[in-house]
Design goal:
Blueprint (H helix, E strand, L loop, with lengths): L1 E5 L5 H10 L1 H7 L10 H14 L3 E7 L2 E12 L4 E8 L8 H15 L4 E3 L2 E2 L3 H8 L4 E4 L3 E7 L1
Parallel strand pairs: 4-5
Antiparallel strand pairs: 1-2, 2-3, 3-4, 5-8, 6-8, 7-8
Helix pairs in contact: 1-3
Length: 153
């Protein structure tokens, strides 16, 4: 069963490993695998800092207890009732519907917070992610490299 849970320190060993060694994931994120593995404790600290500085909530995507990736609500504005949504899954879990299920769950979290609109930023080549948003009714704006979905909740 797929579920999302606020990221905990013990999730960071697997999350940091994916970001250190998953070349397909790094290609999709337009980053490169680091020369040295990402330290899980440093990753946890950086997540905490990022959450605070970006008004965010980061969730781990889990299949039962197996860590698959993350999904987040960031730049949360309770005043404007808006946020941004971003996510990633380790490449062995692509194409199995896990992102779709996690996205549905984060939409419920956003509604619980009273949010009315979510936006994102997607590389134009990421057709699965574009389908994920449009499948929920998002409108799309584009530039030469990216697609910017906007979803009313």
């Amino acid at each position: 069963m797929i579920h999302i849970k606020r990221t905990e320190k013990d999730h960071c060993l697997q999350l940091s490993s994916y970001l250190s060694y998953d070349r397909l994931l790094n290609d999709q994120l337009q980053t490169r695998c680091p020369d040295q593995p990402i330290d899980p404790h440093t990753y946890w600290r950086d997540l905490q800092t990022w959450q605070s500085s970006h008004s965010s909530r980061i969730y781990t995507i889990l299949k039962d207890q197996l860590v698959l990736g993350t999904i987040s609500l960031s730049h949360i504005s309770l005043e404007d009732k808006t946020a941004k949504c971003g996510y990633w899954l380790a490449s062995p879990y692509w194409g199995q519907g896990y992102g779709k299920k996690a996205f549905g769950q984060v939409l419920l979290k956003a509604r619980t917070l009273g949010l009315k609109s979510l936006t994102g930023s997607i590389d134009k080549s990421n057709h699965a992610s574009i389908r994920l948003w449009t499948g929920k009714g998002a409108s799309l704006e584009t530039d030469t490299e990216r697609v910017y979905p906007k979803l009313s909740l």
